[in-house]
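Possible regression after last week's pipeline update?

I re-ran a chain I had predicted before the update to compare outputs. Posting the input and the new output here so someone can diff against the archived version. Not blocking, just want to make sure nothing changed silently.
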Amino acid sequence: MVFFRNFLMRDWLLFSGNLCILVTSLLYIAWWVVLFRPGASAPRFASAALLIPAFLIGFAAIFLFIFGVRIPADVRPVVPAGIILFAALILYGVLLAVSVYVFHRPVTSELFIMILWAAGELCALSALSAAGRFGMPVTVVLDFLVLAVTVAGFVCYLRYYHLDGAASFIDGLVPLVSDVFVVVVFLVLHAFA
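New output (post-update):
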């Protein structure tokens, strides 16, 4: 097998976007561990030193995904990016309402980030599938992984404020590590596709 065989501009943009997502996730995990690990006492600048690059690299990922998804393919995607993004917006609204009104969970940015990540991955996957880079089995597996990790992340999001100490730390870490796993799988499959 050969890495990056016949990569086109779409492939490079989406692969680079996922690399940016990986780096962003690793920085966010580092931030979580440094600041929220039980007994942690990090200097004040540690938060900014980890979150500012994560924020900037995360924005770069969004732009790389947008440009990669917008490159037309010979075959129309089964689910166009516009429909994925519209569904993600509706899903965010529903999950936000459920978390606030049913579970009385304070609103934090993590829910938005979770849904944005899932939508970005699904858009990239749809574009790569339409371009013939991924066959049906790989597409189905990656779709399933993205959706499963998003559901698990939402469950952790709901539980977080009901846990203390090490349990809350681990609960916050589970979605981050799960996202990294999915992104690494996506990157490896894309590199060898």
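Follow-up from reviewer: compared with the archived run. The chain has a mean pLDDT of 94. Marking as no regression found.
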